[in-house]
């Protein structure tokens, strides 16, 4: 009796060529994070439930993979933020602040299985954590990281939307609606989906006065360039400290985002984004690929007042963004947007067609020494089967070496994409020269 | 009430500078795997218990992290070989053979916690899987992968020990001890630890005849160079097909390992290594750092007859090796062998000491575009604190930019290791030139 080999629903497992493309995206994200000087972090996937769930509750808690091993109550991490909180609180004395870290790793949520939703998925996070305080200019640096990533992934038409939660909160406070703010945010967050009229209707159900609804609608309908929006926010003349502070912060961020090299066409102030309902306290970000708006935000995050309050008395404000890579890759695939710039691991396949493998093997070693990923086909097959292998693996160059080639010390190198064949000397430098010129 | 932030025993969690060193080793291993044309694979950490444990039993099964979520019986992977088996059986029709894959990922074993033993640890595996058959020359390629990795990690004095299980099995068969072979192997495997006399004594307890014990001792005491050992094995005149086949394979491997560029001083035939007791069926490998023999084998593996017999009728022979990276890193650390060639992520820290950050930020962007990992210190601190930050993060170069520097368009770049300071023009190319020359 054989066991049927199968993979759990909601767990991504790719074929090699898809995995190569996935890894390239992952590497590009990681390289950009490193380019901005973020430090690597790798925390355990399993944590004590008591530690991991110090803050959690509600929906999140239901989705946790939680179990006991021996006597110990364990959980799998469901994001990379809680492990970061734990890590910073635990290692506070050994870290330098601002602590800039990136982490790319798998997290686990037992969501209801459906197409495009994963229970195991990669998150790619960066956060900047301050000790006691963190200058607002840090909030302006993150959009430039996002910008560089999506440019590097080959996109041009995307928008990083920026807002500040204090503006929303201050507005609601000024209307005497502080208690309703969560509910109001939830409603106006849906304006793209349900439209203006439905939003007004839902707001009315909260027993808001008409003047208040008008003010809210006036607010969320502010249009124009980022600068125009900032001016209109000023002109609303809302006399509330939180509002004023949020507006001031947003101005600072907008001004500096440009300094950080993000073109005006790739970011804008978007007053309706709120990013969840209680975690973020200042700047918030969402990023949209404008030609594929339907896939939602591809990179989100924001500023929070206090990273690790469940673990420490130290005040640790921070700002961060996250990319949900597994879902993003799924979406890219659905939209045929995955275009790896290298489709194979090997740059060249050496196909020996002779008994004595000495020369082909030495050639392979020499190519590798010069930085070329080189595979040598070591199994006894017909030439046709060997070429088919190169073709299926999308290896760009193939060189067949038989007795004749050894004797003449030349061989034909074949560009598998164009079919072009060129005779080269049988040494690593000649081959590399040909590959580079092609 | 704060929750104490803590990490489970047996789970490695590193400080940033250690993590940088860890990642460098991981990257070197991965790059070498890619250089030999192995394809990447990433399988889920959670699998159906029925699938993952199709083969397991005994000790392994006790260590599994196994739990239910909803109605589903789940387990965390305890190695990367079983997931590979499942993957190849499941995707057989979509793979090209020989299927060469690498996988670097975390695995889980609930071992008794002790110093240097981890419950979550990285394995770095490569395997070559044949469809029906796999030429013996593949067994000769893997030592060259191992060789390149440990050279790349800065080691010179290491030995890849090679043996073939068929030689041992054939020997025992010829002595009529096939049934005892597992037991005999277990005993002779201990010769390094317990010595010759104790081995003889333990063998006697198995009711072996003196002539048989003599033959076994004659066998395991064969010394000399690899070639001499092969000759002595020949001269033992053991008339057994398995033995002869194993000897023939071992000869092939030894001959070709040299072709693949492994110097004679870095490998040898070692007739007593057996690598576990039933998984491997032919070639077996262990690798020792000769100056640190006490840490045991740092890279092991071998040939197996049939990868996925629990999932499919297809015969899938393979050969592979694995590096237990987490434990290896721990051991390197204990021995002070971790010497990262880059100790920080950032190549340079820009320290602005002025209000208008425009120039410093643009300089940072330009440096990044030219491939330099560049961090800009964005928080309002005293110069001394900013320099201390660079020092703690071991960032090799620092450039301080104040009003004077902006006005003169020059600044001093400081080599933090030597203390050397040089005045450079305030542009990315001048700075890179200085860094490259230093």
Structure, explained:
Chain A has 438 residues and is α+β, with helices and mostly antiparallel strands. Chain A has two domains: 16-43 and 80-334, Bira Bifunctional Protein, Domain 2 (BirA Bifunctional Protein, domain 2), CATH 3.30.930; 348-437, Anticodon-binding domain (Rossmann fold), CATH 3.40.50. In chain A, 40% of the residues lie in helices and 20% in strands. The first copy, chain A, has 17 helices and 16 strands. Chain A has helices at residues 16-35, 49-52, 58-63, 81-91, 137-152, 165-174, 181-188, 191-194, 196-204, 210-220, 226-235, 241-259, 325-334, 358-369, 383-392, 403-408, 428-437, and strands spanning 39-40, 46-48, 66-69, 72-76, 99-108, 120-129, 158-164, 267-269, 283-289, 300-304, 318-324, 348-353, 374-376, 397-402, 410-415, 421-425. At the A-B interface, helix 1, strand 1, strand 2, strand 3 and helix 4 of A face helix 1, strand 1, strand 2, strand 3 and helix 4 of B.
Measured as a percent range, the helix fraction of chain A is: 40-55%
Low-confidence stretches of chain A: none
Number of DSSP E strands of chain A: 16
Summed over residues and divided by their number, the pLDDT of chain A gives a mean of: 93
Strand fraction band of chain A? 15-25%
User: Major sheet of chain A, described briefly?
Assistant: 8 strands, mixed
Largest interface, with counts of residues having CB < 8 Å to the other chain, equals: A-B, 97 and 97 residues
Q: What structural class do the secondary elements of chain A suggest? A: alpha+beta
CATH architecture classification of the largest domain in chain A:
2-Layer Sandwich
- Helical region count of chain A? 17
The CA-CA distance between the termini of chain A, in Å, is 52 Å
Counted up, domains of chain A total: 2
Strand ordering within the main sheet of chain A: 1-5-6-11-10-9-7-8
CATH class of the largest domain in chain A equals Alpha Beta
Rg of Cα set of chain A: 27 Å
In terms of quaternary structure, the protein is homodimer
* CATH level 3 topology of the largest domain in chain A: BirA Bifunctional Protein, domain 2
The CATH superfamily title of the largest domain in chain A = Bira Bifunctional Protein, Domain 2
């Amino acid at each position: 009796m054989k066991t049927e080999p199968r993979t759990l629903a909601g767990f991504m497992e790719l074929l090699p060529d898809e995995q190569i493309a996935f890894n390239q995206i992952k590497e590009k994200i990681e390289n950009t994070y490193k380019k901005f000087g973020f430090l690597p972090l790798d925390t355990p996937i399993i944590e004590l439930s008591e530690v991991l769930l110090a803050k959690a509750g509600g929906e999140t808690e239901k989705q946790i993979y939680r179990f006991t091993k021996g006597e110990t109550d364990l959980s799998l991490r469901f994001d990379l933020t809680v492990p970061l909180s734990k890590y910073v609180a635990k290692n506070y004395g050994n870290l330098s602040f601002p602590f800039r870290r990136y982490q790319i790793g798998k997290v686990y949520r037992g969501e209801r299985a459906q197409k495009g939703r994963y229970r195991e998925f990669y998150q790619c996070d960066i956060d900047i954590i301050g000790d006691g305080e963190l200058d607002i200019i840090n909030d302006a640096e993150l959009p430039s990281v996002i910008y560089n990533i999506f440019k590097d992934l080959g996109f041009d038409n995307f928008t990083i939307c920026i807002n500040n939660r204090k503006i929303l909160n201050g507005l609601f406070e000024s209307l005497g609606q502080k208690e309703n703010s969560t509910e109001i945010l939830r409603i106006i967050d849906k304006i793209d989906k349900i439209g203006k009229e439905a939003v007004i209707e839902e707001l009315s159900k909260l027993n808001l006065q008409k003047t208040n609804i008008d003010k809210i609608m006036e607010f969320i309908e502010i249009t124009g360039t980022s600068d125009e929006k900032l001016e209109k926010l000023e002109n609303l003349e809302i006399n509330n400290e939180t509002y004023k502070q949020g507006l001031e912060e947003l101005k600072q961020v907008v001004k500096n985002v440009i300094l950080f090299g993000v073109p005006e066409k790739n970011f804008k102030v978007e007053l309706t984004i709120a990013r969840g309902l209680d975690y973020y306290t200042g700047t918030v970000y969402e990023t949209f690929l404008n030609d594929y708006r339907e896939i939602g935000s591809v990179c989100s995050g924001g500023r929070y007042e206090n990273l690790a309050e469940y673990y420490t008395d130290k005040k640790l404000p921070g700002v961060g963004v996250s990319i949900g890579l597994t879902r993003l890759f799924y979406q890219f695939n659905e939209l045929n947007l995955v275009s790896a710039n290298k489709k194979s691991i090997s740059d060249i396949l050496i196909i020996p067609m002779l008994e004595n493998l000495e020369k082909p093997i030495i050639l392979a070693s020499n190519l590798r020494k010069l930085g070329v990923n080189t595979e040598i086909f070591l199994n006894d097959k017909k030439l046709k089967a060997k070429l088919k292998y190169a073709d299926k693996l999308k290896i760009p160059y193939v060189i067949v070496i038989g007795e004749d080639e050894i004797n003449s010390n030349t061989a034909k190198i074949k560009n598998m994409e164009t079919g072009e064949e060129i005779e080269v000397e049988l040494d690593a430098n000649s081959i590399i020269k040909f590959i580079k010129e092609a």
